[in-house]
Amino acid sequence: MATGYPTDDGALEAPAPERLVWMYTQMYRIREFEERVKSTFTAHPGVIRGHTHLADGAEGSIVGSIAALAPGDQILTSYRCHGYPIALGTDTKAMMAEIYGRSTGLCGGLGGSMHLFDPARGFLGGSGIVAQHLPHAAGAAWAAQIRGAGQAVVCFFGDGASKQGAFHESLNIASLWKLPVVYVMENNHYQASTRSDQEDANAAAGEPLAVKATAYSMVGITVDGTDPVAVHATVAAALARARAGEGPTLVESLVYRLSAHGNLIAPPGVPLHYPEHEAVAIFGNQAEYEAALRGDPVPRFRHRLVTDGVLDALDADALEATVREEIDEAERFALESPLPAPDSGLAYVYA
Amino acid sequence: MVRTTYAATVAATLAAAMRADERVVVFGEDVALGGPYLTTKGLAEAFGTARVVNTPISEAAICGAAIGAAQSGLRPVVEIMFVDFIGLALDQLVNGAAKAHFMSGGQLRVPMVLRTQGGAGQRGGAQHSQSLESWLVHVPGLKVVMPSSAREVAALLPSAIADDSPVVVVESKTLYFRHEDLPDEGVAPEPLGTARVLRQGRDVTIVATSRMVHEALEAARQLAMRGIDAEVIDPRTLVPLDLATIAASVVRTGRLVVAHEAVCHGGVGAEIAAQVQAACFYDLDAPVVRVGAPFTPVPLSPMLEDAYLPGTAEILDAVDAALD
Ligand SMILES: Cc1ncc(C[n+]2csc(CCOP(=O)(O)OP(=O)(O)O)c2C)c(N)n1
Ligand SMILES: [Mg+2]
Questions:
Q1: B205 and B148 within one domain
Q2: Is residue B190 assigned to a domain?
């Protein structure tokens, strides 16, 4: 396993103070990285042309989950996939270069923002097809079950993905075969421009989406996804059940995405940017959006650690400055990196 | 010689692969019971139901779980009972299996085999009789194999299982119970992407796939009685396609007929014809002629289905057109 793997062996105890600081650091790194992705659209127009999707607002959920992993565990994600590899220790320079389509990118410029992969760190990748990776997670968990070494798989996806057939087929198989997998649904209440209560029967009935687990006789839990400690405890417990052969869990992690679904998509030449959040732009719900901003989990977790005496404010400033330098370096590296040679696009069609 | 069938050879070849490599696992609907055509018969008894697993009727999850399992160190051989059901697994195959190695810049591999079977002639109706291989041939990242006999199953299925890319093997339900003699010493694996010349001839080249290989050989026999010497080539794998063997033949004969059971429209025959005309334009003495089914769903009624199915007669007509 790569050095610096952020494991605590799935311990169920509350994270130690250093671990809490580590968690805050990862949350801050994810936020800074994605703010830099976002500002690239205006600071360096044309450098990113396709789709990007940010996880701002979900950092606590991502880091809390990743902190519960043990060596040899694997994760799979949707296209909103920058945060997980950052927490796993993937080089942010290679990630930014991949998003910029450079030859030095994590996947040589063949993947992009929606398709980051780092299997050496257990990250089997992001998929641009909503819910496509849920059965992959079941298969990876089946392989883990056959290996019999106590390893498990965590699969991250959005609330919208739970309306796909692949979600239902996967939960059924995972529960039927008692697979060591945790399905973490990051419920941000929107599928692009549609609100959950407009497209989900459970949401429309005022129920948590975790009730979907009941249909497959598996544990379903709703957790405050803005609280990394709560997410850690929930996912760690789910992983412990998975490793013990007690089967999968559906964790509904409640978050709020603080940016729009993704950047504007437009023909070449038209400058791209992040539009206003759909809550405001489509539903005219300024109050909802402002409440979400006030609840921003990154400054909130910092405040909590400082108030609890876990992290000194000056130390927090210092670690944030170090992170900003890291992200400056990632951006510089990506901007200075060459674009891939045209014929490199013919590689890797077949293994 | 050992007398066997195509279906029994599938089962025997899978058993050999499972014996040789414990990473090989088999799953799909009813596979632990042998499946409707007995192509996995005996595997669960020999290797246990941990490695030969019956799945729910969830084609997307079958294919998707194979992808995840393959990326995590297993070599799954999964079955989609009829190729007609592959639509339910197509996203997994096309956007998942075929692209993981590429999008990850070579970091991931998906060494999985998806076995399925197609073809009409058994009164299965429009949803259990199709030949849909051209859907798969269109996708970079997938390999596509169509064994035309028990011998080809024995030669190619091991290579498909050993391949580090996703391979779809489209078997033929019509051929499953055809009797065939295989050598006592068995058939050695042969590489994907190699065509096989089944009959040498000077006057016309017939490229045929799957069941149509046998129709082409029968046509060649009848043509010989008329003094026409046909060469019959089975490409065996559609991706990668062994154009070199086909082109070398066309350079000698100057005439090409391509025959498959799938509808002509948008079929693999069009791709082969296009590649051959680009490679051999000045060697061709006549336009390439395609044989395939009419552009309709497969009809149920015996009379209609027999009329629908291309066979020896259609190949003979095509050869006449090519020689005209
Ligand atoms: C199969 C498929 N259908 C539609 C889309 C277009 N699309 C991309 S993201 C998205 C919304 C998904 O919402 P959710 O699952 O809640 O995830 P979130 O984006 O909120 O994280 C849609 C419809 C897609 N990428 N794939
Ligand atoms: Mg959502």
A1: no
A2: no
Catalytic option among B79, B101, B128, B231: B128
The total domain count for chain B is 2
Of B96, B103, B163, the CB nearest to A110: B103
For the complex shown, is ipTM > 0.90? Answer: yes
Tell me A118's DSSP state: B
Query: Which of B137, B154, B182 is the endpoint of a domain?
Result: B182
Q: Which domain holds residue B287?
A: 196-323
Whether B59 is catalytic: yes
Among candidates B111, B109, B151, which has minimal Cα distance to B1?
B151
Rounded Cα distance, B153 and B9, in Å: 7
For the entire predicted model, the pTM comes to 0.95
The two tokens of residue B76 are 């799954």
Q: Which of residues 51-80 of A touch B (CB under 8 A)?
A: 74, 76
Q: What is the CATH number of the domain that holds B9?
A: 3.40.50.970
Helix, strand, or coil (residue B306): helix
Find where tokens 């063997």 sit: B245
3-state secondary structure of A206: coil
Q: Identify which of A189, A191, A274 to mutate to test ligand 1's pocket (most ligand atoms within 8 A of the CB).
A: A191
Domain annotation for chain A: domains and CATH numbers: 21-334 (3.40.50.970)
Mutation target vs B (from A77, A102, A142; most B CBs, 10 A cutoff):
A142
Give tens-digit pLDDT for B19-64: 999 999 999 999 999 999 999 999 999 999 999 999 999 999 999 9
Identify the CATH number of the domain in which residue B243 sits: 3.40.50.920
Q: Tell me which residue in A106, A127, A173 faces B65 most closely, judged by beta carbons.
A: A173
pLDDT tens digits for range B185-243:
999 999 999 999 999 999 999 999 999 999 999 999 999 999 999 999 999 999 999 99
CB A78 within 8 A of CB A158: yes
